[in-house]
Amino acid sequence: MRPENYQPVEHPASHEYELYFGPNHPGIEGNYALKVRLTGDEIVGIKADGGYLHRGFEKIMEDRLWIQNVALVPRICVPDPPPMEETYARAVEMIGGLEVPERAQWIRAMILEMSRICGHLFIVGGTAATIGQYSNMFWGITDRDYLLDLFEALTGARIYHMFITPGGVRRDIPDGFLDKLSHILDYLEARLPEYDDLFFNNPVFHKRAEGIGVITQEQALAWGVTGPNLRACGLALDVRRDDPYLIYDQLAFDIPTETSGDVLARTMVRRSELIESIKILRQIVQRLPQIKGPIRCDLPNPLAWNLPEGDAYARTEAQKGELAFYAVSTGGSKPWRVHVRGPSSMHAVQVLEKLCLGGRIEDIALIMFSLDACPPEVDR
Amino acid sequence: MTTNIPIKSDPNTDIACRTPDMEERSLLRKVIDRIADRCRSRSLFILHYCTGCGAIELPPVITSRFDSERLGIQPMVTPRQADILLITGYLSVKTLKRVILTYEQMSAPKYVIGMGSCTINGGMYWHSYATIKRLQEYMPVDMYIAGCMPRPEAIQQGFLQLIDNIDKGQAIAWQDYYYQYDKYLGNQQALFGPDWHTPTDVIAEARHYELFSENTIGEHTALLAKFASKYVTLQCEELVK
C-alpha cells in the first residue's frame, strides 16, 4: 500500500528494494506493519511500524473510576485478556490493602491457566499457518473454542470476561463446571499426540524452524525478552515461580525450557507449557471444592471509591511473557497514572527487527508468530 | 496478423450495433443486475484486513466450528478481489487512512460491515484521542454488528442478512460514496488535513458508473485540484460546483 505523503524518489541503480509488509497482509499478526529492505529475498534492513491500534489506554484510564477500568483493561491484549484483569486488580488491591479470599484466588488461577491454554493453542496454530500447515490452525482454533465455551458458562462472555475484579471475582463457579473442565482437559490431553503427529514432530516444520530466529541468552536478557521466548533460550525464569502470586506457590508444576532459542525451541516450549497448564488445572479441579468461603471481599460503593494515596507494581506471567501494571493513586476516585509493561512491545519491535535481519522474507511471518507478539498490546 | 479491413455496418439494420433506447436499456440492466446480484450473494470474499480486536472472533467464524464457507464467504488477501470490507472494531486515525485507501481500491460493488460497538459510536473508546467514533462519516456502511465483541453467531447472522440484502438489491451503500463524495471527503479532510487525497480518481469512477450527482463535487473536492491534480481528471474550475 502506498504510504501517506508518498513521493517517488530517484535512487541510484541498486539491487535493493523496499517492501511494505503489512498492515493489510495475511502474513502479519494483527494490524501491524514492517518496512523491509531486501536484496533478492534476503533482508538487509527492517523497521517496525506500529501505532495502527493505538487507543491511548494509559490516558483513557486516568479518566475513569478505579472500578470502571476493570472493563477497559482486558481490551489491551485481545488473545489473552485475563492476565490484564488479574494484574490490574492486584495493583489496585496492593494500593487499597484489600485481602482476596482464598477461594477467589483459586478461581483466578484457574482462569489464568485456561487462558494460557487458549493463547497457546491459538499461537501454535498461527505458527503452523505461516508455513502453510493450515490443518493445525483449524484444529487449534476449534479446540480453543471448547475452552471459550467454558469461559462463557463461567463468565458470560467468550473473549472479554471482566470477571476478575479488585477484591475477588464476580461470581462463584456454576454447578458442574469443574466436571466439564476436567472432561475438556482429558480431551485436550488425548489430542496432544495428534498434534505431535501433525505438527510438532513434522519434519517439514523442523526443517523450516531449526536455526531460524535464534536468540542467545545474553541477547534475551539484554533485549527484555520474557515468557516462553526466554525459556526457549534455556533460562528457567517464570514469575509464577520466582515471585509467586495468588496460590501458585501451592501448586506443583515444572518450568519447561529448551536450549537452542530458535523458532522450533519456542514452539516446543509452548507445547510443554500446554501440558504444564493442564497439570495445574487438574490440581485446581481437585482442590477447589475443598476451599470454602467468600469469593470477594467487601468493597465500598464502587462509584465513590477513593483509594488511599500510594503506588503499586504488580506483575504476572501472562501467556506471552511478563506483564506488569504500575498504578499510582493520589487518593482520588480515579488513577493518577497507570503504566502497562506488556511483553509484546519488546518482542514485536526490537527483538523482531534484530531477528529478521539477515534472514529471508518468507521467515518474517514465522519469526513474528513464534515470538507471539500481540499488536494491540504493542500499540495499546 | 493485424486486420485493418474496415467493417461496414448499418446501425439501423444490424442488431449487434443497434443502440437500445433508454427504456429498453434500463429494463435490460434491471434483468442483468438481478441475475448478477443473485450470483454475487452466493460467493463473497472478505478482505483479510484485521483492523481491531474483533479480528479474534474471525478465526472461529471462518474455520471449522462456525464455518462461514458454507455461506460462500471466505477470506481474501487482496482488496481488488474482495467484496466485503469487514471493519473489525475500533479504527485509529492511522488505520483509517489505510482503510480508506483499501476501500477505494476495491472494485464495485463493495460492501462494508462495521463490526463491534466501536464502529457505531466509539464504544469503549468513546473519549479516546486516537480513534474515530463513527465509521459512517468516512465511508458508507451497509451493516453494523453490535456488541463487544460480537459473538460468532452474530457475525454469521450479519453475513446472512447481508447476503439477503445483496440478493434483493438493497445493499447499495457503495453507490452513496460516489453520490455523496464531497461529504465523505470533507469528513476525511477534517481529520487528515486539507491536503488529504488518495491515488484513486473517485470522481472519474462516479462518471464511469453513472453515479455522478450534484453532491459528488463541491467545496471539498475543489481542494483536490490544488493537492492532487495528477490524480484527478477534472480541471480546477470543474471541481467546484
Give a description of the structure.
The complex is a heterodimer of chains A (380) and B (241). Chain A is α+β, with helices and mostly antiparallel strands and 380 residues long. Chain A has one domain: Cytochrome-c3 Hydrogenase, chain B (Orthogonal Bundle), CATH 1.10.645.10. Chain A contains 14 helices and 8 strands. In chain A, the strands form 3 sheets. Chain A has a 3-stranded antiparallel β-sheet. A 3-stranded antiparallel β-sheet of chain A has the order 6-7-8. In chain A, α4 (102-130) runs antiparallel to α5 (134-155), α4 (102-130) runs antiparallel to α11 (263-287) and α11 packs parallel to α13 (363-371). The relative contact order of chain A is 0.19. Chain B has 241 residues and is mainly α. Chain B is 41% helix and 9% strand. In chain B, α2 links the parallel β1 and β2 (73-76). In chain B, α1 (22-42) runs antiparallel to α5. The longest helix of chain B is centred in the first third of the chain and has 21 residues, at 22-42. Chain B is globular. The termini of chain B are far apart. The mean pLDDT of chain B is 82. Chain A binds chain B through residues 1-2, 4, 23-26, 30-31, 51-56, 59-60, 63, 71-72, 75, 78-79, 122, 137-138, 141-142, 145, 148, 158-160, 376, 379, and chain B through 47-53, 55-57, 59-60, 63-65, 75, 77, 79, 90, 92, 94-95, 97-98, 101-102, 124-125, 127-131, 148-149, 151, 199.
Rg calc of chain A: 21 Å
Q: Please tell me the overall pLDDT of chain A.
A: 87
Number of helices of chain B: 10
Measured distance between first and last alpha carbons of chain A:
23 Å
* Range of strand content of chain A: 5-15%
CATH class of the largest domain in chain B: Alpha Beta
For this entry, what is the oligomeric state of its chains? heterodimer
Number of domains of chain A: 1
**Can you tell me the CATH topology of chain A?**
Cytochrome-c3 Hydrogenase, chain B
**Poorly predicted segments of chain B:** none
- Widest sheet: strand ordering of chain A: 1-2-3
